[in-house]
Amino acid sequence: MATFTIYDEFLRYLADGSIDLDTHSFKAMLTDTAPNQGTHTLKADVTEISAGVGYTAGGVTLTSVTWAETGAGTGIWRWSSANPSWTASGGAIATHRYLVVYDDTPTTPLKPLVGYVDRGSTATIADGNTRTWTLSTGWFEIDATP
């Protein structure tokens, strides 16, 4: 998978408790509009692809979400989930290039952004096909070691 880029405001939301990586519900959505790491803060700042033919507005809920130390005493924490995927049914899922992850739980701020992946080029998902975004080692890690 391509590099996961964290939105600037995510760290503030994480630090002030607006985002809880352990207990909140997170979603992944698709867009064909380039995310802006520095100015986008909420889901409403991102133009999502149109719903239909296997793509649900708001994207898919991430499952098997974990926030855990990679090993006892390592000081490296990894946020991960099962690989999100979409299956086109009844037509092709619209052109997209980016996958955006956001926190679906808080109401203030409303649906804060976590980060995004740029697949490098635009694509559609043909009718009957599935696209899975494979996480090799999770979405991101934070290294707390000195």
Descriptive overview:
By secondary structure, this protein is mainly beta. The protein has one domain. The protein is 5% helix and 37% strand. The protein is built from 1 helix and 10 strands; from the N terminus they run E-H-E-E-E-E-E-E-E-E-E. The strands form 3 sheets. The protein has a 5-stranded antiparallel beta sheet with strand order 1-8-7-2-3. Strands 4-5-10 form a 3-stranded antiparallel beta sheet, with no helix packed on it. Strands 6-9 form a two-stranded antiparallel sheet. The two termini are 28 Å apart.
Sequence-ordered SSE layout with sheet pairings:
Blueprint: E1 4-6, H1 8-15, E2 26-31, E3 60-61, E4 66-69, E5 76-80, E6 85-87, E7 93-103, E8 113-125, E9 130-132, E10 140-143
Antiparallel strand pairs: 1-8, 2-3, 2-7, 4-5, 5-10, 6-9, 7-8
Summarize the structure.
The chain is mostly beta strands and 146 residues long.
Notable traits:
single chain, mainly beta, 1 helix
Indicate the radius of gyration in whole angstroms: 15 Å
List the helices and strands in order: EHEEEEEEEEE
- Binned, the helix content reads under 10%
Count of separate DSSP helical elements? 1
**Count of spatially separate domains:** 1
Q: Give the class from helix and strand content and strand pairing.
A: mainly beta
DSSP E strands, number: 10
Q: What would you call the shape?
A: globular
Strand content: 35-45%
> What is the arithmetic mean of pLDDT?
96
Which consecutive residue ranges, at least 5 long each, have pLDDT under 50? none
